[in-house]
Every structure is written in structure tokens, then in C-alpha cells.
Design a protein that fits this description.
Order of helices and strands: EHEEHEEEEHEHEEHEHEHEHHEH
Shape: elongated
Strand order of the largest sheet: 7-8-9-10-11-12-13-14
Bound molecules: manganese (II) ion
Largest sheet: 8 strands, parallel, barrel
Radius of gyration: 23 Å
Number of strands: 14
Distance between the termini: 38 Å
Length: 337
């Protein structure tokens, strides 16, 4: 971090700033130029509030030269993080297929879909019990009963469950959930992030629909700062001027995050496009770009789905796609060796 001081800074205020920074373990290099004075801050500046320094009378400007996230930063953790979930691993060269309905609608529905996606190669079951819906009049999910149906599907298939936690009060109900999903709308719900950081289950953070990579990684940092290192990132499209698709899938997120962080990267082409026929080409693109897994909505009767039918694949469509994705992953590995 570089602090640019105003002309002729008050010596007492300058000394108090320097002392304050040194007490935080920061080493300070001072450069004096033509009427300008710079402080170069060296050390762990992730806990230094740049806005607080900017607000001082003697300070002209503050520039960060290092990312504000530390635990999530690849510079401090060069090895890829591999998250263990049940018998499966997310990251480390695997392609994890997480599939299932948008919403859990009944025991029969979720068990049937779980069996189908497992047979096709999925290694995790997704399904919403608590649903964040744009309209208060839309189906809000089955809640606790939905979680129970997911547990039954897990007992019958052995597939670990990933499902969304919307509110702190729901956490005690998530005992048998394997991966806690933080949805796009809650990506910056900092109390929720802190709470999942204090428990041990892996957490998958969906990208907020207008979040920058840095904001998204700061959300991961919240969870990791609480002691939970098992964080997974999920790109699900961002909002742009385009209205044809539900969101715009940002495939660049995959190589950029790979460079910035060691955390596994999952792509959700269902919510990114909102159209089932676009799931196949974008899932293929995501695998070619190097993602660690995909989150795909599958419904046995998309036309009558209570949520997100138009973007859901039928089990037979998922079956064909899963086979292609697993083959593509192997092919990508062979050409990258
Ligand atoms: Mn959905």
C-alpha cells in the first residue's frame, strides 16, 4: 500500500500515523520528492483500512498494490485447495457434476431425479428447500420438509447434498447437508458469511449478480477469516445490458480466479442463461476453460416445474451432456499435459 501525503504534512499527525502503522507490524519506507512525500507500507496490509487513512487531513491519496484478501489469495497459498465432500473431492483435477431440481417439490420427485443424475455421473445432488424468489407470490420452497426429502434422496443414492442457506436461523436444520450454498443475493450478507465461517461444512459462494472478482473473493475471505478454509466459488452469470439470456455467463472468471485464488471454481450454466438449450454449449465451454465442476438444474417434468423449468434439463438430456462433459474433461487434460 502506498500513502501519498499532502504538501508539508503536520509532523505530529504524520508521526502518529507512522506509530499506528508500526504497531500493526507494518514496515514503512519513506520517499521524499519534489514537494511530495510517499509512505510505502510493507507487510500484511490486508487488515489496514485504506478508507480510514484516506480520511486523514495529511493524506492526499492511498493506493493498494496488493489484494485486500489474504486467506483466499494464491500468493499466500500456491497449491490448489481440494474440498472433500463425502466420497468425492471438489478440485484437484476432478470434474464434479452437481445436478438436481431448482426446488425440491416432493419426495418422489427429488429421489427420482437423484437416482437419474447419479446414474449419469453426477457426484452431488443439488436442490433448493429455501428459495430466494424475486416475487413474494412465487413458490418459496418447502423449507424444512424439503431438507428432509433431500436427506431421503441422499440416503437412497449416497449423493452428498448442496443446498442454499438463506438465513442464520436455518443453520441448525442443515446438520445433514454436505455443502452450504450462499446464493447470489446473499453474497454480501456479511453476518451470514461470518456464521458459515465459524462452522465446518464446506461453503459454496455464488457470485453476486453485479459483483467484481475482488468483491466475490472478499466474501470468500469473510468465511475463511472465521476459520473455515473449505470454500468453493460458483460463477452463475452477471447482469449486463443483454436481456436475451437471464444473465451473461462470465467464462473469463475461470482463468482469472485460477490466477487470483487457490479455491475450486464451479460454473452454473442454468442460472447464467435461463434457457435449457444454452446449458449444453456453455457447460462445454466452462469445462474447456478449466472449471472444477458444474451445477446444473435437472427436472423430470420441466414444463410443470415450480421454479426455473425453462432452464432445466430433462434427465435424458443431462445424461447425454454429462457423458460429453466427462469426456471433454479427459481430453482437456491430455492436451494440457
Ligand atoms: Mn434455480
Amino acid at each position: 500500500m502506498i500513502v501519498v501525503l499532502k504538501h508539508n504534512p503536520n509532523p505530529e499527525q504524520l508521526q502518529s500515523l507512522i506509530t499506528w502503522l508500526q504497531e500493526k507490524g507494518i514496515i514503512i519506507h519513506t520517499s521524499i520528492g519534489e514537494g511530495n512525500m510517499l509512505l510505502g507500507l510493507v507487510g500484511d496490509t490486508s487488515k489496514i483500512d485504506a478508507d480510514l487513512i484516506s480520511a486523514l487531513d495529511i493524506v492526499e491519496d492511498v493506493k493498494r498494490v496488493q489484494e485486500p484478501y489474504k486467506n483466499a489469495n494464491r500468493k499466500f497459498h500456491p497449491e490448489d485447495t481440494v474440498v472433500k465432500v463425502g466420497n468425492t473431492q471438489i478440485g484437484g483435477g476432478n470434474l464434479t457434476l452437481m445436478a438436481g431440481p431448482c426446488s425440491v417439490e416432493s419426495e418422489e420427485q427429488v429421489v427420482a431425479i437423484a437416482k437419474a443424475v447419479k446414474a449419469s455421473g453426477a457426484t452431488m445432488l443439488r436442490g433448493g428447500a429455501f428459495k430466494p424468489r424475486t416475487s413474494p407470490y412465487s413458490f418459496q420452497g418447502l423449507g424444512e420438509v424439503g431438507l428432509r426429502y433431500l436427506e431421503i434422496a441422499k440416503e437412497e443414492t449416497g449423493l452428498p447434498i448442496v443446498t442454499e442457506l438463506m438465513d442464520l436461523s436455518q443453520l441448525p436444520l442443515f446438520k445433514n447437508v454436505d455443502v452450504i450454498q450462499i446464493g447470489a443475493r446473499n453474497m454480501q450478507n456479511f453476518d451470514l458469511l461470518k456464521a458459515v465461517g465459524r462452522q465446518e461444512k464446506p461453503v459454496m459462494i455464488k457470485r453476486g449478480m453485479s459483483a467484481t472478482y475482488e468483491e466475490w473473493l472478499m466474501s470468500a475471505e469473510y468465511v475463511m477469516a472465521g476459520g473455515n478454509e473449505n470454500v468453493i466459488l460458483c460463477e452463475r452469470g452477471v447482469r449486463t445490458f443483454e436481456t436475451y439470456t437471464r444473465n451473461t455467463l462470465d467464462l473469463a472468471a475461470i482463468p482469472v480466479l485460477r490466477k487470483l485464488t487457490h479455491l475450486p471454481i464451479i460454473v452454473d450454466p442454468s442460472h447464467a442463461t435461463g434457457k435449457s438449450w444454452l446449458v449444453d454449449p456453455l457447460a462445454m465451454g466452462a469445462v474447456a476453460t478449466g472449471c472444477d465442476g458444474l451445477l446444473i438444474e435437472v427436472h423430470n417434468d420441466p414444463a410443470h416445474a415450480l421454479c426455473d423449468g425453462p432452464q432445466s434439463l430433462k434427465p435424458e438430456q443431462f445424461d447425454a451432456l454429462a457423458k460429453k462433459l466427462l469426456r471433454l474433461k479427459e481430453f482437456v487434460k491430455t492436451i494440457e499435459e
